[in-house]
Automatic annotation (TrEMBL):
<dbReference type="InterPro" id="IPR006195">
    <property type="entry name" value="aa-tRNA-synth_II"/>
</dbReference>
<dbReference type="GO" id="GO:0004821">
    <property type="term" value="F:histidine-tRNA ligase activity"/>
</dbReference>
<feature type="binding site">
    <location>
        <position position="324"/>
    </location>
    <ligand>
        <name>L-histidine</name>
    </ligand>
</feature>
<keyword id="KW-0030">Aminoacyl-tRNA synthetase</keyword>
<dbReference type="InterPro" id="IPR045864">
    <property type="entry name" value="aa-tRNA-synth_II/BPL/LPL"/>
</dbReference>
<dbReference type="GO" id="GO:0006427">
    <property type="term" value="P:histidyl-tRNA aminoacylation"/>
</dbReference>
<feature type="region of interest" description="Disordered">
    <location>
        <begin position="51"/>
        <end position="70"/>
    </location>
</feature>
<dbReference type="InterPro" id="IPR036621">
    <property type="entry name" value="Anticodon-bd_dom_sf"/>
</dbReference>
<feature type="binding site">
    <location>
        <begin position="136"/>
        <end position="138"/>
    </location>
    <ligand>
        <name>L-histidine</name>
    </ligand>
</feature>
<keyword id="KW-0067">ATP-binding</keyword>
<keyword id="KW-0648">Protein biosynthesis</keyword>
<feature type="binding site">
    <location>
        <position position="180"/>
    </location>
    <ligand>
        <name>L-histidine</name>
    </ligand>
</feature>
<dbReference type="GO" id="GO:0005737">
    <property type="term" value="C:cytoplasm"/>
</dbReference>
<dbReference type="Pfam" id="PF03129">
    <property type="entry name" value="HGTP_anticodon"/>
</dbReference>
<dbReference type="InterPro" id="IPR004154">
    <property type="entry name" value="Anticodon-bd"/>
</dbReference>
<dbReference type="InterPro" id="IPR015807">
    <property type="entry name" value="His-tRNA-ligase"/>
</dbReference>
<feature type="binding site">
    <location>
        <position position="184"/>
    </location>
    <ligand>
        <name>L-histidine</name>
    </ligand>
</feature>
């Protein structure tokens, strides 16, 4: 009796014993172990204890599907990555901002058919307000810009690092929560802003030893599609929906895209023209299609010229297939990809000059990007560029006798005040063998021991664990040598 059959019998028995469905589903593995030992009576006893409020609930120790815990080793890596995000943002003179994790749902319920809207973690709070866990940071940023109003001195150059929630189908590097690093420039209409952002992205890659052989950034401009739609006299109000549909070209079969465009009211001759335009990868072909005087051509050419100034031209390539799946982009759009094509987009962004007006403000030039924490780590692993992140301390301080705990605490404090990372052994009765092992685990540089003989003269034993040398020092000498 395996699988469903076995579980069915368990369920039936448990129900007879008076268990509710959620009571025995708390941990399937736990139930299985008990049931296999034929000890349903124990469960029944627990039930009795539970009704008296004395039983501890057996919970599953896994985080919810698609989410992560960050135990120390993962947290160290995360901190390192976020430090790099911050370092690069500051190099470009951006200021850090943050927003609430929960926002009003209507900040996200745009009507262009975006995937992100269908993936919302939304719920009603206890006050009956419709709220959602933020799936991205851009709407919050727009809200804050609106709230602060015109009193601010533009341009704003803001960056944020925040957790975002999307109920996604999980693939490598895509999960239901991720952290995103965003850099946004508000108030600059020209592509000089995009050039700064692209340069920041390249600076970040370079800091991680990723080269333009590993990663490329595809750049296009939504005005290309806009020009194509105008050519076919398609209403501007279907522009966002068309962008969202064609963004799915590499995920869905072409016929499905064609049928969606058809449903959106795009005539078949225009569908052909749109799909053709998306294959363009050279400025000459682009000019031939939409004319050299087109705004899209001018902006793209200017952006690529600026890229040469920054020395990042090797990283960029014009590729009209990049449209991006968010409805609010109005101009330049870009996405970084791994050249081996093993992973999903590493980061993406673009210009969104009309987002603020969709929230009731004035049109305000804006552009930015979002850079997730997941795909980049996959890439670093793939390229063997991810170093280890050990827990490291400078000194381990230990009293060899309980009576010396108080001076040991004093020495640890003095060492810490000089900036050294100090592990004070606070457990009792630890043997030297344990201490040496502990020093090894912590990759400690020094071991400072307080023994009764040396301490009578106000001295401590200092073991340099790298040089394997032992000296006896006064506390002042120890601090001076730190
Ligand atoms: P996005 O393309 O939806 O853009 O997300 C930006 C980046 O966040 C992606 O390229 C990827 O690195 C990461 N990301 C997105 N979804 C997931 C997921 N489910 N799991 C792991 N990583 C993910 C935006 O969110 C825009 N708001 C970016 C922006 C800022 N545009 C202008 N300013």
């Amino acid at each position: 009796m395996r699988g469903r059959g076995l579980w069915g019998v368990f369920r039936q028995r448990l129900r007879r014993l008076g268990f509710g469905a959620n009571e025995y589903l708390i941990s399937q593995q736990h139930l299985q172990i008990r049931a296999m030992s034929g000890d349903l009576a124990v469960v029944a006893k627990d039930k009795e204890a539970s009704s008296k409020g004395t039983m501890q609930t057996q919970i599953t120790t896994d985080p919810p599907r698609g989410t992560r815990d960050f135990p120390p080793e993962d947290m160290r890596m995360r901190t390192w990555l976020f430090d790099k995000f911050r370092e690069v943002s500051r190099l470009f003179a951006f200021e850090e901002v943050d927003f609430p994790m929960v926002e009003s749902e209507d900040l996200y319920t745009r009507k262009a058919g975006e995937e992100i809207v269908g993936q919302l973690y939304n719920f009603e709070d206890k006050g009956g307000r419709k709220v959602a866990l933020r799936p991205e940071l851009t709407p919050s940023l727009a809200r804050l810009v609106l709230q602060k109003g015109r009193a601010q001195s533009f341009p704003l150059k803001w960056f944020a690092i925040g957790q975002c929630w999307r109920y996604e189908r999980m693939t490598r590097g895509r999960r239901r929560e991720h952290y995103q690093w965003n850099m946004d420039i508000i108030g600059v209409p020209g592509v000089e802003a995009e050039a700064e952002l692209l340069s920041a992205i390249v600076t970040f890659f370079t800091k991680l030893n990723i080269t333009s052989d590993d990663v490329g950034i595809k750049v296009s401009n939504r005005k290309v599609l806009q020009a194509v739609l105008e050519k076919y006299d398609i209403q501007p109000d279907s522009f966002a929906a068309v962008c969202v549909i064609v963004d799915k070209l590499d995920k869905l079969p072409r016929e499905e895209i064609e049928s969606e465009l058809d449903k959106a009211g795009v005539p078949s001759v225009a569908i052909e023209g749109i799909l053709q335009a998306l294959t363009l990868q050279s400025f000459d072909d682009l000019e031939a299609l939409i004319g050299a005087e087109s705004g899209a051509v001018a902006e793209l050419k200017q952006l690529f010229a600026l890229a040469e100034g920054y020395g990042i031209q090797d990283w960029l390539r014009f590729d009209a297939s990049v449209v991006r799946g968010l409805a609010y982009y109005t101009g330049t759009v870009f996405e970084a990809f791994d050249k081996e094509k093993k992973l999903r987009a590493i980061c993406g962004g673009g210009r969104y000059d009309r987002l603020l007006s969709t929230y009731g403000g004035q049109d305000t030039p804006a552009c930015g990007f979002g850079f997730g924490d997941a795909v980049i780590v996959e890439l670093l692993k793939e390229k063997k560029l991810l170093r280890a992140f050990p827990h490291e301390v400078d000194d381990v301080v230990m009293a060899l006798d309980d009576s010396l705990k108080i001076p040991a605490a004093g020495i640890a404090s003095r060492l810490r005040s000089t900036g050294r990372v100090v592990e004070l052994v606070i457990e009792k009765g630890k043997k030297m063998k344990w201490v040496f092992k502990h020093c090894e685990t912590l990759k400690a540089k020094r071991l400072v021991l307080l023994g009764t003989t040396e301490w009578k003269e106000g001295k401590v034993l200092v073991k340099d664990l790298n040089l394997r040398e032992q000296t006896v020092k006064t506390v002042d000498e120890l601090i001076a040598s730190s």
